[in-house]
Write a structure and sequence with these properties.
The structure is a single chain. It contains ten helices and no strands. The radius of gyration is 17 Å and the shape is globular. It is mostly helical and 206 residues long.
């Protein structure tokens, strides 16, 4: 995976995605200078998600889409868009959970834990179930982080029971939709660093 991360960009889409990673890193400093430590920490929380698509070698357009989604989600917290715009919270959770659930599945596929979408033993139904579960798990983790931030850092972080349940439900539905997309349109997002040879080796070992 390190080779994927260090490989020079080979297309404009990949250069754009890499630029967003640089922007995300600089955004932490910008948030710190303009908004304070708490907002900088919120933006920094998105950095692992920005880096993972490059490590697993996602298709450039998919990489770019994931990066945009995470940066929008992070800065929406900084500017309180989740409380200012009624539908924004649900929409971002829907899109963000779906994107991260696919990244999680492809990361595990890259490590040989689950079957890649191009492998002979791949199950479309299994991929949908797993991706949905990943989205629900990530949504639960995020709600825990929000609760900790609200309880111990700042009451600016909006936390209510209805908001928590609604966010998790939206994330679960988003992950379900993303799972269907992963199962039936894998070549649009499949990592370029996971060729058929590696997939067949993974299948033969299993």
């Amino acid at each position: 995976m390190i080779d994927n991360f260090l490989r020079p960009a080979e297309s404009r889409a990949q250069m754009a995605a890499d630029a967003l990673r640089i922007l995300g890193t600089l955004s932490v400093l910008l948030a710190l200078l303009l908004h304070g430590l708490t907002d900088a920490a919120i933006v920094a929380f998105a950095l692992p998600g920005l880096m993972l698509p490059r490590f697993i070698g996602m298709r450039p357009c998919a990489d770019f889409a994931v990066s945009v989604t995470l940066l929008v989600a992070a800065w929406s917290n900084v500017y309180d868009l989740y409380t200012r715009i009624g539908w924004w919270d649900v929409m971002v959770h829907f899109v963000c959970a779906g994107a991260l659930a696919v990244v999680a599945y492809l990361f595990l596929a890259h490590r040989g834990v689950v079957a890649p979408p191009v492998a002979r033993g791949f199950s479309a139904a299994g991929a949908v179930v797993l991706t949905t579960a990943f989205g629900l798990a990530l949504g639960a983790l995020w709600e825990m982080v929000e609760w900790i931030g609200h309880a111990y850092l700042t009451d600016r972080i909006y936390v209510t029971l209805d908001d928590t349940i609604g966010d998790m439900a939206a994330g679960g539905v988003g992950a379900l939709v993303a799972g269907v997309f992963l199962a039936y349109g894998p070549r649009l997002i499949m990592p370029s660093a996971l060729p058929a040879r590696e997939s067949s080796e993974t299948t033969s070992r299993s």
